[in-house]
Amino acid sequence: MLNEGNTQKHIAELIGYSLSKVAYWCVHGDPENLDSLRDNRMNGNYKKATSEYINLLLEIIEIEPDKYGYEFGRWTTARLATHLEEKTGIKLSGTQVRRILKSKKYVYLWAKYSLEDKQDPQERSLFKKKLAEYLKIAKESPKLLQVWFWDESGFSLRVIRRKNWCKKGTRKKLIGDRRKGRINVMGGVRSTDKKRWVDFIPTGNSVNFYLVLQAFYEDLKQEWVELGNLAQDFQEKGCKIVLILDNASFHKKEEVLQRIIKEMPNLIVEFLPPYSPDYNLVELVWHSAKEYISNRLFESIEKLELLLNTLLNEGGLIIKWDRKLKNKGNLVNVI
Predict the structure, then answer these.
(1) Cα dihedral angle (18, 21, 27, 28), rounded to 10 degrees?
(2) How far is CA 105 from CA 55, 99, 112, 125, 200, in A?
(3) Is the CB of residue 150 less than 8 Å from the CB of residue 245?
(4) Prediction pTM value
(5) How confident is the model at residue 329 (pLDDT cuts 50, 70, 90)?
(6) Closest Cα partner for 274 from 120, 134, 130?
(7) pLDDT digits (tens, 9 = 90+) for 75-114
(8) Range of the domain at 218
(9) In this structure, are 191 and 249 located in the same domain?
(10) Is residue 112 part of a domain?
């Protein structure tokens, strides 16, 4: 048709193809070689992912890179694309791999360090059964038994460098000196009504542990008296208080434990299995408080302590427990 004097536009209209395709054929086509009419530009830069490719991707992403002999510790989409190209011969970009993972409901989040290799499953199972019994009794008969989850934590005045909004090509400057200071707290949360009791301590040791417990015990006795009971009847008729503790060395000091038995007879101390912070509900209290103050600046330790007292002891910190436990997944197993 071209040899007969037809224009490329006229040929395109006659055979029903685009002008660009006909123009390509007229320039690159060889009448003696039909394969020359294939437009190599249609192949694109990369091949499409097959179902086998996607299945292999989902299998590999669950395996640590060192199992394949790599020195890096985590997969990126670029590394996955390179590895899968070697395995399948299909070359995709990291962006394409990211789209595949996103379509399969994968997200890129910080990993959480696991303590499973240090835990004793049998010991955890026995403790969980015992804890479940305590919680059941406390829920059905709160006047007979209370369960308190107890721990220590620290809050720092140090300001960390944060991400900031700024124009592209510039970087916001922050003051170089960082305020130093730390506040240590010790206390617990009650299982039934989520009441919190927290005290401030200079440092965590057996002396401060005993003094804080003594104040805690007296406050619970006063709470019992305010219900119309006599203080002298607390030991005989008052409720038992189960205190769930971790295995810090000053918690287990024999001298302190003996004084607790002698001077606080209503107190029952139960220790968590080793490496089992997921059985301690008060961890969520510390987590929520640190979330609340994470983007605030404090001029002094006194102002930070004042806010923490408002949050932890005066009800200023509102914790939506159902949502908090749901978001934590299996990181908290006490309810």
Answers:
(1) -160
(2) 14, 10, 19, 32, 44
(3) yes
(4) 0.69
(5) very low
(6) 120
(7) 999 999 999 999 999 999 999 999 999 999 898 776 666 7
(8) 119-159+178-331
(9) yes
(10) no
